[in-house]
Amino acid sequence: MLTVLRGGHVVDPATKQDAIGDVWFKDGRIVAPPPGGKADKEIDVSGHVVMAGAIDIHSHIAGGNVNTARLLLPELHRAIRARRAGTPLSTAKWSTYETGRLYAQMGFTMVVEPAMAPHASLQTHLELNDVPIIDKGALTVLGNDDFLLRMLRKGEAESAINDYVAFTVGNTRSLGLKCINPGGCEAFKENLRVFGLDDEVPFYGLTSRQIFQALQKSTQAVGVHHPLHLHMNNLGIAGNIDTALDTIDAAQGLPLHLAHVQFYAYGKEGKNAFSSASARFAEKINANANVSVDVGQVMFSDTVTISSDVLKQFNSMPGGMPKKGAIFDGDANGGGVVPYAYKISNYYNAIQWAAGLELFLLINNPEQVYFTTDHPNGGPFTAYPDLFALLMSADLRAQTMARLPTEALEHTTLPSLKREYTLYEIAQMSRSGAAKLFGFTDRGQLGAGAVADIAVYKPGKDVAGMFRRAAYVYKDGELVVRNGEVTQYKRGKTLNIRPRYDNNITTRLDAYYDELYGLPRSIFDLPDAALPNHDVFAEVACRN
Amino acid sequence: MSKATLDGKPITLEDACREAARILGDATFPVVAGLGADAAGARSAILLAEQLRGAYDHLASKEILADLDVLRSFSMFTTTPNEARVRADALLFVGPGLSQLWPAMLERLAPGQPPRHGAQAGQQRRIFWIGPEANEAANIPATIIPAARDELPEMLAMLRARVGGRPVAGDAARQPAIDELAGVLKNAHFGVVVWSASSGIDPLAIEMLQAMVADLNVTTRCTGVPIGARSGAAGVTQTSGWMTGFPPRTGFGRGYPEHDPWRFEAKRLVDSGEADAALWISAYSGEAPPWSKGDVPLITLAPAGKEPGRGLYIEVGQPGVTHDCVEFAQEIGSFALRKATTPSSAPSVAQIIDAIATKLQGEVSC
Fold first, then answer.
1. Distance from CA of A101 to the nearest CA of B (A)
2. For residue range A431-454, what is the model confidence (pLDDT) as tens digits?
3. Contact A189 B118 (CB under 8 A)
4. Could you tell me the residue ranges of all domains in chain A?
5. What is the ipTM of this complex?
6. What are the start-end ranges of the E strands in A216-307?
7. CATH of domain B4-60+231-359
């Protein structure tokens, strides 16, 4: 069926559109306007904004640590309303089903879960499979695993490391690699409580710097589009701006994605010895085009921190609100889950909020900075509409700043920043840029041939409201949201890549698992038969 | 071909599914109970309970909730069996019957072998077992601290006090061993405690154990390996967690999930008459329902040979035995695909429940 969305304000950076126009689609794909063509279905979207479906590049929506958070905090997600027909469990708060519904309602059509442990990838994929409507992807976590650290310690050839990386990404059905406090989680098992960029992992003689550089190179070599996704050392610690700047230098000009950088934008100024260092950070990012970042914006709310940075999470336990948590020493990274409440009246939280917004406003290229809250670590993904509104209005920011502790405003440049994001820039950050970051050629845009994932918003005074409740959302050309409500479920795919490797690595790994763990390596495999449906995965191409 | 009976008389599978749909569809508040199933079975069962606006419970919820109550009211430190195997230089087993609850435990944790990682690599592990069953610890080099089941809380309290350097006025005979254990844990690089709520220790005792682990982590590393409960409990709990946000003992009477360990206990729901129909699932073992009320309209999904005397019975296969399944694998602390050991044509729980669900009249309006 040929459908046309007629007369909307089309905002599509990938095709450089920012004007009134029509969007045609057929059989789940965007098509060029047929000459003299007549649509089977014509929808008048005049007065609306039309964008491609948004892509969230970093949101913890699935996997063992996320599920531990659900079970840890029943009091934080009591459901309150019954669901609409045809959408089972869509109002079960924090459930995978609700996750799919809420993302779709905001016009999001793809989300990447950024921390999948290789030995628990099946659970992550089972959960992703139960997120309806949207497409999904995941990043596989390496960098605290004994096998890799042994290879590096022995100084093995890059080709061997590449084979291991390619095998692991392919076998866990992910879109690339993440590295979380490289070496730091292993060091925590050896009872280290702090771990910096140049600290050595006990018994391996390797620094964090060496580990991430090796993975960074390897990610490029095996043809993963997405640059190594790095969760740096010293998250959340006053003065950690130095770690962040040193890490960018350590990247040596190679592509690198830094995750939730707001949590590293801290200086030590002021009587609380805690200040925003975002201005320095943004300057560095602007000068290093090889680096992309997502912000991990703090939004004032009760939330829970979920991270595979076990060392950091352990150190956060005494400050938990409420005071409880889970600390899991996994086969490599593991994870920690600690509840937290960001309060507008709290000096430190106010600095965090301001530091995040400064990064957004001071980084020049919207395709270099992404809008995450590191869901749920800085706040829930449902706060994105509020975040977009803050980026688009200096007045709205000023209103919030008026409620912050005044001393906090002395240690951030935010009050001086008047920049306001345009809809085009929001679309660059959430659509075209996000697609580029993963090498998607047929998403995040409305060009002919792209997947017909389309979000239509009704602009109004309430910018957050506009983004919270899309007027129409199409997934693969099917209407799934009308007037801000999901009308039906459909099954999304989990996108994955299969980089090539020399099969010798599997023989080597088989022997390693057998010798060390006394287990067949295949117990960690992820065959299609393990998923409830046979159409779960969709493979996308590598770079080479 | 699957077998189905109604009050002992054979009926076709098709008729059985239709009858099951009628029983459940006619009920005001049905309970999906037992839930002894693999991940796919649990998923289908929870979706069915939601569709029916009923409740669901697992046959080992008491044990599931013993651990979860400690997590959600206190905290929990855990690790994988792999990490315990390669890293633990002190291993503490707590309670009787662990090696029956997890038959591969000693093979998997390999307590007799030295740890492989860290400063402790190559050194002999120190192993303690408080209150094992007779002979259970015979084949490992463990120091045994004898304790009856009901003495375990006191032993754990003594141990935590001694780890904290506080005096105790407990059992003088066992105090030297407790003191030694406290010293070993404090001096260990990576201590691991192994326990199971199924061995009969209650949430307070588990909290005592975990609080000691938390105390130890102030100066060194210590963590735990829990042994999950029977009939797929750990996997069902995880599946329930991502589907509804809650563990079993969750109801959908209001059209959305509410978790209440008292309100949605299947035994109480049936015996009180609040539930007016029950779907009992016990695919692993064919365990019988715990309630005493004999006249609740009942559908039983159980393996061959476990047919109850009354009600509707549909034979299902055993996960990982007669059909491939995904379940939580104790030996890795994560989900894994299990290949069938003796494949048969008996249907899975998911297949039967999906067949029942398609026969339900439309959707319950919200």
1. 13
2. 999 999 999 999 999 999 999 999
3. yes
4. 54-355+369-422+489-495
5. 0.98
6. 228-231, 256-258, 266-267, 275-276, 291-294, 302-307
7. 3.40.50.740
